[in-house]
Design brief:
- The protein is α/β, with parallel strands linked by helices.
- The chain folds into 3 domains: 84 residues, Arc Repressor Mutant, subunit A (Orthogonal Bundle); 54 residues, Periplasmic binding protein-like II (D-Maltodextrin-Binding Protein, domain 2), CATH 3.40.190.10; 63 residues, Periplasmic binding protein-like II (D-Maltodextrin-Binding Protein, domain 2), CATH 3.40.190.
- The longest helix has 28 residues.
- Helix 1 crosses helix 2, helix 1 crosses helix 3 and helix 1 crosses helix 4.
- Helix content is 42%, strand content 15%.
Length: 226
């Protein structure tokens, strides 16, 4: 049994006329007659009765017509869903995030995405950058969000925002606050950087930047959490 045979049978049954069915299907009558005969032979029942007045659907044909239309609807739905999935309009998206991105950019982008793609289910899960990279490579994640990713040949990164970089300095109660107004004041001083894991990472980018402006901290100690 072929879907083409089902389409031919449904068209003839609904039109009640071979000529009208052929016109609707944009084919000649002989292929329609031949395909329906093959369908009847395969089923072992007579579906249509031909007469001078047109084509009549038998009782067996009426029952088969309901199922044939249901099968064609299922086939059409399956095709449309496959095309939608291919176009990225249907399916599931697993998202990984790390750090404070969950408070800002992730909710905004996810909300926009779900509005544009309402038939895609979205799952958000916390994962370190190393975990994200591993899951991206094995297909467990579709996309990840964090503040810094090392550049790898098999991963694509995109900048979706920028943030200012701040330096926090301990204030001595005996001394009035003296804001750091130049990076040269960091030179030779101890510096705590973040994060401790996921190297190379954001901490290394900060140190690389300082070195590019000839600023070298005396001691750098990575912290586990901000």
């Amino acid at each position: 049994m072929e879907f083409r045979q089902l389409r031919y049978f449904v068209a003839v049954a609904e039109e009640g006329n071979l000529t009208a069915a052929a016109r609707k299907l944009h084919v000649s009558q002989p292929p329609i007659t031949r395909q329906i005969k093959q369908l009847e032979d395969e089923l072992g029942v007579e579906l249509l009765v031909r007469s001078s007045k047109g084509v009549q659907v038998t009782e067996a044909g009426k029952l088969f017509l309901v199922e044939a239309k249901r099968l064609l609807d299922i086939s059409h739905t399956a095709i449309e869903k496959s095309r939608a999935a291919q176009a990225g309009e249907l399916g599931r998206l697993d998202i990984g995030y790390f750090g404070a991105t969950i408070y800002t950019v992730v909710p905004q982008l996810v909300r926009t995405f779900m509005t544009a793609r309402p038939h895609i289910s979205v799952k958000i899960q916390r994962a370190s950058k190393d975990e994200q990279v591993a899951r991206l490579r094995d297909g467990q994640l579709g996309i990840g969000f964090a503040r810094y990713y090392s550049v790898d040949h098999d991963l694509q990164t995109m900048r979706i925002g920028e943030e200012r970089l701040y330096l926090a300095e301990r204030l001595d109660a005996a001394q009035p606050p003296s804001p750091i107004d130049g990076l040269e004041k960091i030179h030779g001083r101890s510096l705590t950087v973040f994060p401790q894991l996921g190297r190379p990472g954001f901490a290394d980018e900060v140190l690389r930047f300082l070195m590019s402006v000839n600023v070298q901290p005396a001691v750098t100690e990575p912290a586990e959490d901000v």
